[in-house]
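#structure-requests
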Amino acid sequence: MQVYLVRHGQTEWNVKGLLQGSSDIPLTEEGRQQATRAAQALARRIGPQPIIVTSPLERARHTAQALADVVGVDVTVDDRLRERAYGAWEGITPQERESQWAEEVAVWRNHGEPNVPGFELHDAVRTRMVAALEEAAESASAGSAVVAFAHGSCARVGLHGLLGIPLTHRTIGNLGNTAWSQLTRRGRGDWTLDRHNVTAAFIEAA
C-alpha cells in the first residue's frame, strides 16, 4: 500500500520564520496556489478513491481539501496529525527565542527536549503520529492509497517513528510547503520510505 504524507501550504508565519505549532494560521494566497498545484500532481499519482486524512488546523485542512475537490472524496480530520505544540515559542521571532531562552534553544538545536512551557515532547508526537498513520492505512481498501496532511515537525518525527529511526538526530529533514513523502506499507510496523520532499514542480519537470 502507498501512503503519502504531505505538508500544508505556505502561511504568513512560514514567511516570517515563526514557529506555528498549535496556532491556527491560515494559508497565504501563495499557499492556496501551492495547494492547488500539489493536488493536481498528487491526483495523477494516487489512483481512485484514496483515503484523505488531515490535521484539524486550517492550513492543513485547506491543503487537504484542494486534493479532495479534485478526486471527489471526503476528508477525515484526525487530531493526532496536528503540529507539535511549541508552547511559549509559538509566534515569537528567532531573535526573541535566542534572547529569552538561549540555553533551551541550544538544547533544541542538539535535538534535545527544551524545558519550555507547553512544548510537546518528541515521544508524544511520535506516538500519536505513528498511531494515526497506521490506523489510516488499516482503514483503506485494498489498492487504495492514503494521503495524510500534516506539518513540518510532526511529519518528520512521524517518519522517524514509522521507520524506527531514533529521534536523537535529524536523519530525515522537514518537508517543504506542500511537499510530500511517499511510503510503502506492507503491514503494521513494516514501512519503507520511497521518496521524500517531492513537490509538484519536481513532478512537472520530470
